[in-house]
TrEMBL record:
The keyword Membrane does not apply. It is an enzyme of class 3 (hydrolase). SUPFAM superfamilies: HAD-like. InterPro entries: HAD-like_sf (IPR036412), HAD-SF_hydro_IA (IPR006439), HAD-SF_hydro_IA_YjjG/PynA (IPR011951), HAD_2 (IPR041492), HAD_sf (IPR023214), PGP-like_dom2 (IPR023198), Pyrimidine_5'-ntase_YjjG (IPR052550). This is YjjG family noncanonical pyrimidine nucleotidase. It comes from Mesonia sediminis. GO terms for molecular function: 5'-nucleotidase activity. Its EC number is 3.1.3.5. PANTHER family: PTHR47478, PYRIMIDINE 5'-NUCLEOTIDASE YJJG. It comes from the Bacteria. It holds the Pfam family HAD_2. Keywords: Hydrolase.
Amino acid sequence: MIKDVFFDLDHTLWDFEKNSALAFQDIFKKNRVPVDLEHFLTHYVPINFKYWKLFREEKISKEDLRFNRLNEAMLASGYTIEPDLIHVLSQAYIEHLPLNNHLFDGVEQMLQELIKKELRLHIITNGFKEVQAIKLKRSNLSHYFTTLTTSEDVGVKKPNPAIFEHALNKANAEKQQSIMIGDNLEADILGAESFGLKSILFDPENKTPHTGNKILHFNELKQFF
């Protein structure tokens, strides 16, 4: 029987792309940056994904991630912006990102149902420590979760098995009675499985081929518990 459920946060519970777009809309307006938001986002989303992969693989620093993803997306969108302004926008983005807190459809109802079944819920995230707790609090999710483990707490990122081990120890959870739910096949699913955890892929756009457990909407999760 499953007793502990570990969730990823961004792109799983917390609708990162929607909240990110709103943050950019706000900071571009406040800093008078004449960028077509929709055009910019078509470049930023895949570039951000690329840099997060490099960050997970310990190939770049947090500072490199924050600066380069924005600078490269601006250049790809046809805009040349001074490095000083890129730094300003990068910091403003981090500050504005947790101010919008749209969740994926069905998240709160699903969490309530899991709590009613007396399951303990936890977060394991590669997101920046200084904003993840704020996201949980401002989206009114904090009270559902017993523990929050960030990669910065551990010093390694998913899919490194050490972060899963740390999270289970922090939660006082048993591997055989735990499961990981996340959107990233490499970091969340394969990472968890290589550590020996059961897993469920959350893939709302049904774009990731996967032969294991998979859901497109959180109302499908009840079949596993």
